[in-house]
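seq:
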Amino acid sequence: MTRVCFRLQVQGAHLDAYRERHAAVWPAMLRAIAAAGRRNYSLFLDDDGLLIGYYETDSVADADASLAASEVASAWESHMQDLFDGATGRADQTARVLPEVFNLEDQLAAAAD
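struct:
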């Protein structure tokens, strides 16, 4: 299992629209995310527009490929694109992935050895 954390920047003028759209994500999009193999998926939005996303998956490459091939995911990303700073393409493909530097369970397991 791989843990993925990423960040994007939502335009300050569009914070309410971002929150509204995510309060009722299209059911077909929810199913596409799950079918792609992303689990424990959460998004966190700060008042300055900093968006942090987190999910777990068995294969980042497979999950990304599944969503890239999904018509509903493409439509959702197009629907969301205007809300992001510097939007030059699909936000899901331009997000900055953050390196993990600490995980409690991993360190506890290593300390038990």
